[in-house]
Amino acid sequence: MAIAYDDQNIFAKILRGEIPNNTVLETDHTLAFRDIAPQAPVHVLVIPKGPYVSYDHFAAAASDAEIVDFNRTVAKVCAMLNIALDSGGAGFRAISNSGAHGVQEVPHYHLHILGGTPMGRMVSKSVQA
Ligand code: 5GP
Q: CATH no. for residue 110?
């Protein structure tokens, strides 16, 4: 079953230039920009330019070029913001929320990159596993 993409979501509007953003890095296939409500000193969202709803949708349906470009952009952003281990940074957390149980608010795939401070435990659960 194909996943329906809502082209009125806020990140689609950012990609069309209808809403401004604080861009960190842009490539042919990918845009990285600052989260409007940062949860850490570094909080960047990396999104593909294509119409993908979630991580699994992107991983299954995107082209090899889009997937490679996305991941290389993540690496470049981490290096640019001095959080990449590879360039002496202290690290970061990458999170992708997907769907209702993932508590995804914006239905356009995005990877949160959070860093600049210790991020605490991975998940604060409101339910028991
Ligand atoms: P989600 O819950 O879908 O994983 O995360 C959506 C993220 O998008 C949130 O962290 C929220 O602050 C961010 N966000 C929502 N609207 C905007 C916007 O208009 N501009 C930017 N830069 N970030 C947004």
A: 3.30.428.10
